[in-house]
Amino acid sequence: MSQVLKIACGSVAVGLAVLAIKTIAWWLTGSVALLSDALESIVNVATALAAVVALRIAAQPADSRHPFGHHKAEYFSAVLEGVLIVVAAILILREAWSAWQDPRIIEAPWLGLGINCVASLINAAWCWKLIRTGRRMHSPALEADGRHLLTDVVSSIGVTAGVVAAVLTGWAWLDPALAALVALNILWSGWQVVRGSVGGLMDVSAPEEELEQMRALISANAEGAVEAHDLRSRRAGSAVFVEFHLVVPGDMTVDAAHDICDRVEGALHKAFEGSRVIIHVEPEHKAKHSGIVVL
């Protein structure tokens, strides 16, 4: 089992533990704001399970039906997570509206808030690990899960402050008002997750800093060639796809041109783990004099 998949499975376990803790906090207090926190944890568990399934699919090798691999499965997981976040927000708004019409007295608030804070601390530690690992391993599913947990932590802080204010002031309407604000924050989080995932599904170009690194590697390792041009690159989960045209002297042998390609591919593979490199070799008269200059 890969490290990314192990962490995704850990997210399921953490999500179930946090859900149980937040449910106890809501049961003790009857607070609709704490209920909104618990409902979001249900989404956390569902999206963690979706991430595990997507990562297992993405890890499968290329086959005859999917010659470029299954890496984009992670983006589908992230889109599903965004949709589930929106569903959770709607459920929370419904509960908030019901509580607004019939304000409820919060019972045993300090014990419930203390228990809820324990769940928030667990979420904070785990979301930091997910975002850090997702960026390092280029896993959109893990990073999306981490960003969602981060919004959960922010929401929990706001909920805690609001419930404390409601208890101290006696203003029962603060409880459903806080729940509604949590729902709006969750909706924004869902939009951010979906927007980033759609970019991956639409084959958005690799970041400019990665393209610059690729140009430098091609320039430094293509000795014997004339130039390189029409560099294109995109990410699909953990995989990096790189394509470009390499111009060589017209009298160069196929073996010599192939050796240059091998050097460049090796350098790119070393710098970008899991990269897929396609090089189109062209004769000298195809040079555009506007691409990558070979050192």
UniProtKB/TrEMBL annotation:
Superkingdom per UniProt: Bacteria
Cross-referenced Pfam families: Cation_efflux, ZT_dimer
GO terms for biological process, alphabetical: intracellular zinc ion homeostasis
Residue intervals of the Cation efflux protein cytoplasmic domain: 207-284
Residue span(s) of domain Cation efflux protein transmembrane: 11-202
GO cellular component: plasma membrane
Main location: membrane
GO terms, molecular function: cadmium ion transmembrane transporter activity; ferrous iron transmembrane transporter activity; zinc efflux antiporter activity
InterPro entries, A to Z: Cation_efflux (IPR002524), Cation_efflux_CTD (IPR027470), Cation_efflux_CTD_sf (IPR036837), Cation_efflux_TM (IPR058533), Cation_efflux_TMD_sf (IPR027469), CDF_Transporter (IPR050291)
Subcellular location: Cell membrane
Membrane topology: Multi-pass membrane protein
Residue ranges of the TM segments: 7-29, 41-58, 78-97, 109-128, 149-171
Coiled coil stretches, renumbered: none
Keyword list, A-Z: Cell membrane, Membrane, Transmembrane, Transmembrane helix, Transport
SUPFAM superfamilies, per the entry: Cation efflux protein cytoplasmic domain-like (SSF160240), Cation efflux protein transmembrane domain-like (SSF161111)
Family label: Belongs to the cation diffusion facilitator (CDF) transporter (TC 2.A.4) family.
NCBIfam families noted in UniProt: CDF
Name this polypeptide is given: Protein p34
